[in-house]
Amino acid sequence: MMETQVFRLNLTNADFVNIADIAADTRVQGAVGNPGVPGTDGTVRVSRRTDTSVTVTVSGFTRANAGDDLRIDIPLYTEMDSEGEARVTIDQQNSNLTGGTYTFAIVADGETTAFVDDVEDISRGRYQRAGDIIIDEVTTGSLSSGDSHRARLRLPNNFEWENILIHQSGDDYINESGTVVSLPTTGVPASTIEANERTLGRSTIVRFEGWTNVGTTAAEAIQINAADTETDGRDLSIDFTVNSAPASRGSIIIGSRINVTRDANYGEVSVNLTGRGDISNQSGLVIAEYMDFGAAFEAEEDGEKEFFVGRLFDNNDEEYEVEFTIEETVDNSFISGRDIDFIFPDWIHVIDVEASDDAEDGTISLDKDGENEFSYTIEDDEDELTFNVRFTANGNAPFDGTEDIMIKISGGGIEEMEQVLAVAKKPVTVEVGEQVEMLSIGTMKQDAPEILISETEAGALMEDGMLRLHLRETYGGSIRIDGFDVEVVEGDIELKDDDTYGGGVGMEVEIDVESTEASTLRFYNIKMDVDRSAPMGEYQIDVRGTAVIENITDDGDLIGRADDYQFFGGGVQDEWRSNTNLAGTNYNTVNDHVAEILKEADFSSRVFRADYVSVGTPINLQEDVTREEVSMTVGQTTYMVGSEQMTMDVAPFVQDNRLMVPVAHVSRALGVSRNAVVWDGDARTVTIYADKVMQMEIGSRTMLVNGVPSDMGAAATIVSERTFVPVSRFARALGIDYTWDAAAQTVTFHEEK
Question: Which one of 110, 293, 427, 441 is at 20 to 30 Å from 664 when CA atoms are compared?
Answer without folding.
Answer: 441
